[in-house]
Structure formats: C-alpha cells, structure tokens
Amino acid sequence: MAIVPRQHPARPETNVPNRPRSLDPQELGFTRKGPIGWLAPLLLLSTGLRAVLHLFFGAYLDKRELQNALDGDVFDHSTTATGELWLDYVADLGDGFDATYSVAYLLSQEELEVDGERLPRGRLLLMGGDQVYPLASGDGYENRMKGPYRAALPEAPAGVPRPTLFALPGNHDWYDGLTAFLRLFARRKDGHIGGWRTEQRRSYFAVKLPANWWLFAVDEQFGAYIDDPQLLYFEKAAEQVGPDDRVIIMTPSPTWVKAQDNPHAYDAVDYFIRTILAPTQAQVRVLVSGDLHHYARFSGEDRELITCGGGGAYTLGTQNLPDHIMVPPKETLTRSRSRSLRYDLRGTFPDAPTSRRMGWGVFHRIPRRNANFANLLGIIHTLTMLAMAGAASQGGNIQRLFSIPLVLMLVLIMAGTIAFAKPDGHARHWVLGVAHGLVQIAVAIGGTWVWLQLPFRDWPWPGPLAVAAFVYGPLIAIVSSQVVALYLLVAANFDVNLNELFAGQGIEDAKSFLRMHITPDGALTIHPIGVDRVCHDWVADPDGEPHAPWLRPATPLTAHGIEPPIRIN
C-alpha cells in the first residue's frame, strides 16, 4: 500500500462568495440551530428505533465491507519544513450552533494563548466522532457541522500549507449506515470544508506523522467488531511501522471506561493492538476518543487513555468516573487478552464537584429545555387522573381497581419508567425504574384526590374535560417533570441514567478539545484545552480577510489549560 504524500493544492480564488454582512441564513448559507432537546418524545422514539434497527440489522447496513473498493491509501504528513507538527483533536461537535461554533472559532485561530503559552493552529484537524446530532443526514451535517466550520475558516490561509481534516464516525454518524458521512468526508477527490482539505477515502485511516509517530483511526461500528477489509488495510499500513515507532489510536468510544460495566467493550480495541500493532513492536502511547461529552484522562505505565468529547454537544458530568480502571478488564472472557494494567484518573473537565453542582440544575432545565417532554407527562397524568376519577365513581372496590382504562394507564406508567431506567441485567436499574413508576403513580393518586375535592367534576360536559386539559394538565406536567428531575438526580448517584441527567439539561458550557505537538526530537506534548463559557452573542465580520471567521464573538472567548501539558518522550 503506497503512502500518499501530503499535497498543497492551489487555493481556489474564483467564485468566492461575499462575506456575510449579517447572521441571516441566506447570507451564511446554513441555518444556525439551537441545542437539541434530547428528551423530546419524537426524538426519543426515533433515536430508539434507529438504535434497535442497528442492533438487529446493523450488519445489513454496514458499508465498511463496500469501502474495500475505495482507495486504500495511507497518508503521509511526516515531512514538514521544521520537522515538527501541530494537530488538533475534537469530537462530539454537531449540536447547537453557539457551542459548536465557539469551539470551531478557537480551532480556526492562527494561534491560541493558553496559560501564557502560544499554541499554533493544528496542521491536521482530527474529528473523533458524532460530527452531527441527532441523526446523520445531508441537511444535518450542513447546518450543524459543515456550515459552522466553514464560517470559522472560510478559506485556507495564504502563504502556509492548507490544513487537512480527517474524521472518524461515531454512533450518530452511523445511524444512516454512513451514507451522509462518506458523501461529506470521503467521496470527493477535491473535498474540502471551508479552509480544511479532506483527504480520506474511507471511514478509517492511517496517517504517518513526523519523528516516527503514527495515527491509526479505527471504525468499530457501534463497538461491534472490526471488519476484515479494515483489518487488511491496517495490516498493510503496519508493514511500514517499525519497533522505534510510536502510535496514537483514535477510537469512536472510550471502551476502556465502558469496559468497567461491560467487560467485552474493550475486546475489539485490544484485538486490534494485539494482532495489528504488537507484531511491529511499536509502542501504543495514546488512545483518544470522544463519545462521552467531557474530558477525562487515565494514565498508566505504558500509555495515556484520553476521552475528549467536548466539541459542542451537551456536557456530561465526570462525578461517577472511578479513581482507577483495569485495562483490559480481568472479567473479559477473551483468553488471549493483553495483560491487565492499572490506569489512574489524572484529570477531568468539568471536575467532579462542578459536575455535581451542574446536576442540581436539572429541576429548572428539564421543563425549560424539554417542553414537549413535560407536555407528554401532563397528557399521561391527565388521562390517568380521568381514569382514576371514573373508576372511583363505579361500583365496588375490586371493580374500581380493575377498570380497563385505569389498568392501561398504570401499565403504561410502569412500563415507561422501567424502560427509561434502561434495565440491562443490573438490579439497580429495575429497582430504580419501579420506584420511579410508583412515585409517578402516587402523584397521579394525589392529583386525582385533589380533583375529586373540587367542583369541576360536577360541571356539565365538556366543562370538566376543558378544566382537565387547560388547568390540571399544565400543573401536573410541572409536578411530574420535577419528579423526573428528582429521579434523575437520585439515580445518577447509582450510575443509572447519568447521561439522561445531563442530556435533559443540554448544558452548552464546559467545552474541550486537544492541541498536540510533535517536536523534531520525537516528543509529543498534549495540551488539553477547556472553555468554561461558550459565546451566545455573535457579530458578522464582513470586512475581514478571506480566511478570517465570518462571525466573531461580541466578547472574547477564553481558553485555558484543563491540566498541565502531558509530555510523552
């Protein structure tokens, strides 16, 4: 497999559109989208159905086998004028405009001053997965990822090599079987996103870096397995890797963390290291991933395991991360697994105390960010109240208890709360789901008792129905949504529905990305960069240079080091 050397094509100067003078979509060429309401009923249903379809039919939708017909190039970015290379890593970026563009704006700057040190823009931009939310589509990529990044770096800067973009698909990129992903990142020979050039031809890639460093980006497809054409591609790439080389591995998900609950989660990555890289005697020094929307670094005697999913999606707290992990986990059934080593938690962003404080915001953010979810709860509780009130007017106690409408509503509530807890064999999921359902039923009983004490039920029809719909429904929606918020806060302490605790809030702040530097002597320095507050007030810059961002923040964005630079000699 021949290495494809890095090229610097001439910058296209013809038919360059005028810089927008406002934030109007007609001028920007895309629509700025707000943060996704992750608890929206239709979104929950749609995402859940797609996840189920991939569970049962993922193999039929898997386009990785077909990629064997595409170019199998290994990309050479090892030769630079100074012998060094800067590269950036960002993941989980295609959500609301303000958070996504705040990170894109910082990545596009010629240099960043972080804690007194000037860090140049990366010659490579690595996107680690979930470039769009909630579902992959052409319009989704255009409005939530491509448009904002094109606005951040409209053209390649003059007089310097054009930066290159590589992207690895995450689970949300996979929901259409990679159709839109490949169309955007891998199909066109002259592909580019704004000033960044795209080179890859497949959903996975290998890149030769300066000073005997390599980058291997592995596409696991929902963590299921690594397909044979992909293994063959990396086997051929590994033929050029020697015992003095060091390797950075990109994966779509931090399986080293997830393997603590699911011991098989890390098996595919471990297999890749054992079968592809171990024969070369090269050292795997860094594993990096997104998927979990925070920054966390586990450090061991041989390598750094870094999660950095702060590119734009809702922030996920770090309070439940363990102090250390064993990788691979000793519980895995793989007989030929690598030797299990201990990795200690060294840095997080946001940190655990801040994450806990963020969690308490669930009470006001759930109903405010997820109005349709609260409305659904109000409808369910109103129907349950009407069924209970109707049953109360019937004959004996047994007849009341087994009223068909009432039974249906009670079953719906219990089934919904248990499913929401995602029972996966752990007793705590079932216990918390059932407890949540019983509390919601208790709220319904209390609401029915209050309803029966009021004169509304004796009004002529449709008076009671109108009062139930326009008075009782909105009030009980607020009460029941607060019950959900309380449940999420309690359940998160038992590591149940932690993701929903933060997804429901849609927190846009506490974003993060990595800026890495390979020096001529072979040292790698990783700068984890955090942004405490994203910008919500943007101003068009119609008179800027061609490569300058179309929009600039009304107040400067501030980036800082999450922890001291990580130096790997």
UniProtKB/TrEMBL annotation:
<feature type="region of interest" description="Disordered">
    <location>
        <begin position="1"/>
        <end position="25"/>
    </location>
</feature>
<keyword id="KW-0472">Membrane</keyword>
<feature type="transmembrane region" description="Helical">
    <location>
        <begin position="373"/>
        <end position="392"/>
    </location>
</feature>
<feature type="transmembrane region" description="Helical">
    <location>
        <begin position="38"/>
        <end position="61"/>
    </location>
</feature>
<keyword id="KW-1133">Transmembrane helix</keyword>
<dbReference type="InterPro" id="IPR029052">
    <property type="entry name" value="Metallo-depent_PP-like"/>
</dbReference>
<feature type="transmembrane region" description="Helical">
    <location>
        <begin position="464"/>
        <end position="490"/>
    </location>
</feature>
<feature type="transmembrane region" description="Helical">
    <location>
        <begin position="430"/>
        <end position="452"/>
    </location>
</feature>
<protein>
    <submittedName>
        <fullName>Metallophosphoesterase</fullName>
    </submittedName>
</protein>
<feature type="transmembrane region" description="Helical">
    <location>
        <begin position="398"/>
        <end position="421"/>
    </location>
</feature>
<keyword id="KW-0812">Transmembrane</keyword>
